[in-house]
Amino acid sequence: MLAALLVAHSTAETTERTVGAWLPIETDNYQAINAQLQNTTGWGGILDVVQLAGCGWEVNPNTTAMTVNQTLFESPHCQGIIKTLRTQNIDVHMWVGNVPNQANSDPSTLVSSTLALLQQDEYAFVKGIHFDDEKECAPRATLTNFTSWINYLNTYSNALHKVDVHVSVAVQALFGIEDAPYVHNSPCAVAPWKYKTDSQVIELMSTMTVDRFLEMDTYYFTMARYLNALDWYVDSVPQSKLGVAVANLDVNPSLKNKPDEYLARMYALHKSDANWFNLFDMPIDVEWLEHAKRWKNKCAGCPSLACYDLDVKCDAVVKMEL
Q: What is the pTM of this model?
């Protein structure tokens, strides 16, 4: 037993950690986000990947084809932020919104149109596709719909993996998906502990070929809700498929002027098996900065007994590849 625990501990300690952020670029926020990215002692030196919205990538609701609005893609703020991201060696995943239900039964058009775009030279920088499909508070709300949804995403992911492109999805309230008649947003109708998670949901996630589920249930609410959600996702989603997310104060104002709450949430993340941390959204609140540095680097460079004391300087370089 002791040997098994030591092996598990060693594996957790050596797993690379990834920090990502949702980046909804607009004319009004371009300067602030660009400044954060260019600061290599700040977020520009920590982020590995962004999910980029505002550059025109979307699914046509009538044809299910992936399309690009060239006016948005060629806009100065979109091209400017892409240039900065590439200069900073930060991977770009294109953030796409809702996908129509007909793609569940026949994803072929979505697959072929995405591959056709990725083959074009102007999109050669794209390293991933990220879906933020919130027609329902949890993916398609029922077990039947979730099953067809994840099966289409597996087909899509398998195709994109052949061209070395990552697929991720923003998700929440997966614990509330039940084998029951459809009711809009039913997985969010009551408190999480009032649901009995269907074992088939867990099984489908254990075998999915989607690269990451970026869960949003740790955005909100109290410290207790955060801890309960973190435990559930760590226990229910394979480590290699899970991303844990937090949000700025405009989404979770309960954190205002509570530095110990930031610390407690990040301490729990440190002690979990999660290896992907995502932030909603850029520009990111400064309160998360030092915590993200230390989580990513596993407190390398911190004096003994100082990992969680932000008044003590840690000297490790965060983003070694730069």
A: 0.93
